[in-house]
Amino acid sequence: TGSDIKQIQSRNFADAKTLQSLYLRGNKIHDLPDVAFFGASRLQTLDLSDNAIATIESTAFKRLRELKTLLLGSNSLTELQPGVFDDLSDLERLELQQNGLGLIDDRLFQGCHSLTALNVSHNALKTFNVAQFERRWSFDLIDASHNKLSVVRIPPNLRQLVAIGNGIRTVESTATNGSELILLKLPHNKLTSVDEVPVFDKLITLDLSFNRIREFDFRSAARFGKLVLLKLDGNQLESVSNSLTAPITH
């Protein structure tokens, strides 16, 4: 870490057969060549954050089938090659925040059969298909904060979604038979009503602070049967009502 390394060559790790963790954070690495970590097949944690990586060859992570954590945050990536993560079948945590990614192809994560935590915050994404992570297992967390998203579609197996500081106007659910979502954080977006959020039956925390909500009826919150925390600060509310206890008129 922080050793001013500028380049990785394909056979640098040819004899690293027992290596399980590799930390290269804070260097000046600018690209990852084909089979960059050849020989380090038992690697489980790889930290390449805070470098200057602009190019990753599609086979750079080939044969790293035991890798569980890959940190690529704070680099100079503007695109990712198709198939670059295809060999990472055991990958659980992937960080891509603070790059310059404008597009992430839906097929990019098809080989990541164990992925449960993904950070794509602080990029330039105008679209990001969160619903592509609809899988048989629970997906713990996606952070898509500080991009340029206007729509998010939430799959039933996602437990936590954080998407602060986008331009989100629409929230959709792909669930047809219940949802695992327990936390939804959408501050600093463009939502105009709590009713624009679909019903998530296990939701505990809903953060809609600093949106464009001007009216609030407690009936909107009552739709979420397990909701414990609702944040609406910074919305310039003009009226708050409680039609749940209002007298019935004929």
TrEMBL record:
Keywords: Leucine-rich repeat, Repeat
InterPro entries attached to this UniProt entry: Leu-rich_rpt (IPR001611), Leu-rich_rpt_typical-subtyp (IPR003591), LRR_dom_sf (IPR032675)
Keyword Repeat among UniProt keywords: yes
Pfam families per the UniProt record, alphabetical: LRR_8
Domain of life: Eukaryota
Coiled coil: none
Listed name of the protein: APL2
Native source species: Anopheles gambiae
